[in-house]
Amino acid sequence: MQTSAEKLKALRNQIKAAGLNGFIVPRADEYQGEFVAPYAERLKWLTGFTGSAGTAVVLEDKACILTDGRYLLQIAQEIDAGLFEIVDITKTPLEKWLAENVGEQDVIGYDPWLHTPDQLEKLRTAGASLRSVEGNLLDQIWADQPARPQEPAYLFPQHFAGRSTTDKIGEVRAVLRESKASACIIGLPDSVNWLLNVRGGDVKCTPLVLSYAIVQADEDKPVQWIVESEKIPSEVNAVLKGIVEILPPSSMSQTLKTLAGQGAVALDFKRCPAAFKEMLEAGGAEIKDITDPCIRPKALKTPQEQEAICAAHIADGVALVKFLHWLDTSDEPLDEVKIDEVLTAFRARHPDFKGASFPTIAGFAANGAVIHYRARPETARRIEGDSLLLIDSGAQYLGENLAGTTDITRTIAIGTPSQEMKERFTDVLKGHIALAMAHFPEGTTGAQLDTLARAPLWNMGLDYAHGTGHGVGCYLAVHEDAASLSPRGTMALEEGMLLSNEPGYYKAEGYGIRIENLVLVKKTEVCADTGKQMLCFETVSLAPIDHRLIISEALDAQEAAWLGEYHKRVYKTLMPYLDEKESVWLKSVTKSA
Questions:
Q1: What region does 23 belong to: left with phi over 0, alpha with psi -120 to 50, or beta?
Q2: Would you state the pLDDT for residue 535?
Q3: What is this structure's pTM?
């Protein structure tokens, strides 16, 4: 099978043989990860769509792909619109599409490993008749499906982690006792990797060992690590001996049956595969829905992690300055793909660079207005004329003296920017600075702080359609599931959290602006009126903000002072690592706005 039409026909034959009327194909793996290994790229194989968010539904006489606004332009270029209807999921959610297109007697199949219990409950609440399918129907027709990754695990140094595996397990057990659960199944690989102080190479961009873990409240029982033993080298085994029992993935069903008879079992219904819940229910287990107990402690970076993160950002800042100097002085023809290649090459000069933390977004002019744009050779825009270049990128670093995940966005003037571009850039900068300077009491949520970054744009009747900030891991996931600075950010911020500060503005068919730094939550003064501990942000990303786009007189004294101090710190910190030309250039672009 070579074409989408042939693949679709073969899948429909499998659907009919299984006694179903349709099948759901999400862009997901068994670990609910942002980045998936090639074997799990089922949606891409079936449809040709390469985006990171989407779901296909294949019925007997029609099929659709649902995705969001980030990918609507891209998906139209990649799929056969004669085979698949393109649906904007923000306007027509999956449950609504099913309600409008599936008959009352129809039964839609799903792979329980690729959906969470909450996702399925939402579909059932909308009236969909669903049936769990043992063995993914698409896998049965994908003859040359890639093998599952077998990259070796390795230890994440405890001098960076700041906490031992035993200590972390103890904290999870405390949550289980509080929840009155006998065990908890941890389904997110970044939680498992954090818990066991290990890392791996099973997927791009995030250094993960794809695996699950079962922690029991009984302190005499080892943590059960559900992972292929071939991926665990002797040095990892030696450190985890007596703490961890390694079990093959094929043992999962029997292991959960055993758990079912020992008391209540905790799952995170938002984040674990529905297969866990279905197996436990089949065994008659009492199931408790709790938030993954690793999420909060993983978000609270230890002092050792914070030091390692800051060191990684110095390394990243040096690469960015060298790249920005090259960009400002180069006269060779450039396009968006070349920008990505050169920036990656500058980062790769560092011996501890381990790869990108996500695919670089390099969008020039109108492409910069596509929030999660990804340049491709056939569509890459030339960098020429008068407009803005938005570059959102990040890296993973691990060495003897540093460990961290970076994520930074800079918007660069190309040619002569318009007055409107400068005004919007300055509005975004004012929002960025307002958040960077914020002091707030313990208990403050991300939703409350999100308004600070939006206020300058709101005052102009403008806004942006994404959150202002997300959690970031320590040599882990660049999008970490913890506190967020967004209208949906209900978790309170705490000391040690690492988040992004990234307000933006996007003019459709025109240009895009985003200014992003990572910030650490730190303790500051105690509030004299309430006695509450106050918190603030320490900016850890280091790179100049383009002064050519700033309307200096629009900044008040505090904003100008923050920008001046930030640029002084950028220059003082990075200058020792630069050659003479780069140092002179950096000094010129970090002058007062």
A1: beta
A2: 98
A3: 0.95
